[in-house]
Amino acid sequence: MPIQPVLINGSWRDSKSPIGNFQSINPETGIAQGKRYPISSFADIELALAASHWAVKELESISPENIAKFLELYASNIEDRAGILSQTAAIETALPEKSRFRDIELPRTTGQLRQAARAAKERSWCRATIDTKANIRSKFSPLGGPVVIFGPNNFPFAFNSISGGDFAAAIASGNPVIAKANPGHPGTTRIFAEAALKTLKKCGLPQTMVQLIYHLQPEDGFRLVSHPLTGATAFTGSRKSGVALKHAAESAGKLIYIEMSGLNPVFIFPQALKERGKEIAEELGQSCTLGAGQFCTNPGLVVLLKNQDTENFIKILAEKLRSTPAGPLLSRQVLESLVAAVTSLKKFGAEIVSGGKELDTNAFSFANTLLRVTGDNFLKKSKKLQTETFGPSSLIVVAENIKQMITIAAHLEGNLTGSIYSHTAKKEESLYTDIEAVLRTKVGRLINDKMPTGVAVSPAMSHGGPFPATGHPGFTSVGIPAAMLRFSALHCYDNVRKYRLPAELKDKNPTGKMWRLIDGTWTQKDI
């Protein structure tokens, strides 16, 4: 069977000296799909980097309006392929075609592309700052090198390396992209790439602006992220891979933004449990099992106070998990990692309440799982008991008292989210203040009275957090225009003649709508 081509230098071409090839696997049946995709050697990577270098040069003369046009038309071309994209993704991931892809993930994907287009066109994202007295002006500008994007397995549309949020932010800020597909959904990614190339041609943009390779060896990944021509890297995936890539990139002085593991702790206060424990258990059960628990914001750790209401809550939650069918996991690797993580938690003192085992089916499937541990044991082995269980699993930590609940919060690693459920009539404000003061520094997004699973595509959203949730607590991968700043450099112009300045820094506002900080005041006016 022929090997599928890669998209390099504006055309589909055979991989140069591939190291091997692979097939996607249907997680529900365990059967390999027909098409084979190359594992690229560094020869492909070198070609892509060289082509991106020329794209950088060409983009210098391309207006933000033309980049916005590409993003808008690309979104429309994706919608034209909604059927084949959703069908292919459903086969490659075993996630529901309509309810997951057509109804949720596809409109989210096209929506964030259009948000990025608006930001590119309007230009306020670049934070133009002008000191007229000193004649110093600055703004954020493209990096001068391609953004390399490693997409995750769990969001084949919204976080795809060639259509997702990182892609939208990198393109909108004026950078070319080298996309590295996730091997879990190469066919889906290829369809996106075909739509992107068609859109580039129609818009008259450099066809080397978007390139695609499917897979590579780890050592070649390290060389790619640390290469002199690379502008920055965005990675979403496991902590092991993320930390290794981070070390390689930063050792070479290269930017890298990584989103890795997390438990997304949920603190449920005693009065909230007494008031609406059954409803919260229902919410938690749904959140744990949605998409077979394969969300970066899955609630993997729940902290409760020791009492009878907690015991009742655990029984209700365990029954909810038992009665909910276990969905297929995305790959055998995900299944093996989940088995290893649950085994590790048990080794360090966690007890199985329900589930806890691989299911005997053709699918990559693991029983919906609930574990519990005492607050004392958690504090003794907090690092080991914060092992991420990527899948339908959560660990209950039962604190002896309020003081210990606060101490548990202090021992948490960095997470994307932290949720607090408290009494609706403000009976627990003192406890909230104490927990919030600790938890706020541990998470990127603080949540009240709802589970963390959903991540709204909002300008105010932070999908980031302290290490090891991400590699840098100051940035977000969701939320335009903030996400665009990751792929930019701050350029300062000191006493530069006005006619030589970029349009955003000249006296006249280039769009009439762009916000600029002029002599300490945000304004849309001309100077």
Describe the structure.
By secondary structure, the protein is α/β, with parallel strands linked by helices. It has two domains: 265 residues, Aldehyde Dehydrogenase, Chain A, domain 1 (3-Layer(aba) Sandwich), CATH 3.40.605.10; 183 residues, Aldehyde Dehydrogenase, Chain A, domain 2 (3-Layer(aba) Sandwich). The chain contains 14 helices and 24 strands. A seven-stranded mixed beta sheet has the order 17-18-19-16-15-20-21, with helices on both faces. β7 and β8 form a beta hairpin. α2 runs antiparallel to α4 and α4 packs parallel to α5. The longest helix has 26 residues. It is globular. It starts with 5 loop residues before the first strand and ends with a strand. 53% of the residues are buried.
Overview in brief:
It is built from 14 helices and 24 strands.
- Please describe the biggest sheet, giving its number of strands, its sense, and whether it closes into a barrel: 7 strands, mixed
Structural class, please? alpha/beta
- Relative helix content: 25-40%
As laid out across the biggest beta sheet, the strand order is 17-18-19-16-15-20-21
| SS field, number of helical segments | 14
Distance between the termini: 64 Å
CATH topology of the largest domain: Aldehyde Dehydrogenase, Chain A, domain 1
Fold blueprint:
Blueprint: E1 6-8, E2 11-13, E3 20-22, E4 25-26, E5 31-32, E6 37-40, H1 42-59, H2 64-80, H3 82-93, H4 97-122, E7 129-131, E8 136-141, E9 147-150, H5 165-172, E10 177-180, H6 186-203, E11 210-213, E12 215-216, H7 218-225, E13 232-236, H8 239-251, E14 255-259, E15 266-268, H9 270-289, E16 301-305, H10 308-323, H11 332-347, E17 351-354, E18 369-374, H12 375-380, E19 393-399, H13 402-410, E20 415-421, H14 429-439, E21 443-448, E22 489-494, E23 516-518, E24 521-523
Parallel strand pairs: 6-12, 7-23, 9-10, 9-13, 10-11, 13-14, 15-16, 15-20, 16-19, 18-19, 20-21
Antiparallel strand pairs: 1-2, 3-6, 4-5, 7-8, 8-22, 17-18, 23-24
